[in-house]
Structure to design on (218 residues):
């Protein structure tokens, strides 16, 4: 089994590589950025990619975006995603095309070596491996449709920054994108939340209030 590891934490990245090599698995490359990961996949054509959800530069959805792109380029690539905690939007985005040869595990599962290796082999053999805690939390978070579940990971992040009171320019600077990209995301948010233009309400305020209704009290 040929494996590429994409993880920006050097200690975890090298620890994973040592663990897998000790099991006589062939770690052909490791990467600390999405760009390095995609280049390694193109070069080595691995059987499996182990990918962290949050990677540079913004540590939001870069790992998921890279995993989806790697699968687009190499449809038979098996992908095992690791996350520090359950991220519903990211899990949904990754699994949108089906669960074959895909896995989503919490990082704490890596410490349970037998379970981790079992999940890795299952994914490599064409199956799926979804962490039971992920499944439980996804079901627990299910609620009547308020439109928010339709948002992409990036759109949810834009909406969260809107809720912090940031304007489009500040959001663009925070996310390292153009104001045009932010404006496009906000238009999409309004459309997915069924908020048409109207003189009666401020769509931005309505979207933020709907988002805040879902945030647990602190």
């Amino acid at each position: 089994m040929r494996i590429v590891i994409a993880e920006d934490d050097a200690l975890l990245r090298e620890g994973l590589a040592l663990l897998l090599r000790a099991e006589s698995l062939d770690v052909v490359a490791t990467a600390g950025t999405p760009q390095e990961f995609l280049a390694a996949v193109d070069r080595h054509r691995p059987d499996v990619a182990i990918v962290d959800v949050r990677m540079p530069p913004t540590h939001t959805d870069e790992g998921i975006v890279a995993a989806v792109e790697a699968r687009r380029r190499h449809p038979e690539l098996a992908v095992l995603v690791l996350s520090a905690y359950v991220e519903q939007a990211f899990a949904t985005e990754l699994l949108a095309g089906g669960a074959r040869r895909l896995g989503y595990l919490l990082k704490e599962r890596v410490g349970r070596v037998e379970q981790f290796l079992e999940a890795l082999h299952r994914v490599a053999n064409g199956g799926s491996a979804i962490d039971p805690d992920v499944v439980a939390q996804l079901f627990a978070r299910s609620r009547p449709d308020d439109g928010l579940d339709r948002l992409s990971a990036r759109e949810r992040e834009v909406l969260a920054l809107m809720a912090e009171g940031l304007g489009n320019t500040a959001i663009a600077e925070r996310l390292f994108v153009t104001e045009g990209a932010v404006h496009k995301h906000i238009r999409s948010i309004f459309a997915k939340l069924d908020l048409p233009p109207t003189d009666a309400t401020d769509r931005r305020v309505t979207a933020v209030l709907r988002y805040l209704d879902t945030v647990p009290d602190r």
Observations:
- The mean pLDDT is 84.
- Strands lie at 2-6, 26-31, 48-52, 78-83, 102-106, 128-130.
- The two ends are 45 Å apart (CA to CA).
- The first helix runs from residue 10 to 22.
